[in-house]
Design a protein that fits this description.
The protein folds into 2 domains: 1-91, Protein Transport Mog1p, Chain A; 95-157, no CATH class. Helix content is 10%, strand content 34%. The protein is built from 1 helix and 10 strands; from the N terminus they run βββββββαβββ. The strands form 4 sheets. The chain has a 3-stranded antiparallel beta sheet, with no helix packed on it. A 3-stranded antiparallel beta sheet has the order 8-9-10, covered by helices on one side. Strand 3 (34-38) and strand 4 form a beta hairpin. The chain is globular.
């Protein structure tokens, strides 16, 4: 799919369908996941039941799509998630690096630094489609609002 005139993208960009949720820890697969369109339909993914589009609640930057968990403690779900998760999809700019893995590491280090941590662990790394795409899954512990007593595990994919 091609974006011709998106306000936050200066030139047309080729985007393909992606699925984000199939790789989160504890995921058992769910027929209840719902497909959602991101960035005006340029990308699609699935989100678990109980997650709502944060843009219906607050302003979200043009480069992000955010889904927040609206589940309550008394609700039961068998997908390994609890009640405090958010799903954030962020468009990243191309960086001048020698290969896809190096570019991916650059972005991960930038995101973890923004989250207030420099320690992260790569859980999975894959080069796909004859070296034209690189995917990875990273876990870090970040202090919410900079407070160690509010540390959270963050998964970056």
């Amino acid at each position: 799919m091609k974006i011709e005139k998106a306000s936050h993208i200066s030139q047309p960009v080729q985007l393909s369908t992606c699925t984000l949720i199939d790789t989160y820890p504890g995921h058992q697969g769910s027929m209840n996941n719902k497909e959602v369109e991101l960035y005006g339909g340029a990308i699609t993914t699935v989100v678990p039941p109980g997650f709502i589009d944060a843009s219906t609640l607050r302003e979200v930057p043009d480069t992000q799509e955010v889904y927040v968990n609206s589940r309550r403690d008394e609700e039961e779900f068998e997908d390994g998630l609890a009640t405090n998760e958010s799903i954030i999809v962020d468009l990243l700019e191309t960086v001048d690096k020698s290969d896809l893995k190096e570019a991916w590491q650059f972005h991960v280090e930038d995101l973890t630094e923004l989250n207030g941590t420099t320690k992260w662990e790569a859980l999975q790394e894959d080069t796909v489609q004859q070296g034209t795409k690189f995917t990875g899954l990273v876990m870090e512990v970040a202090n919410k609002w900079g407070k160690p007593d509010l540390a959270q595990t963050v998964v970056i994919g």
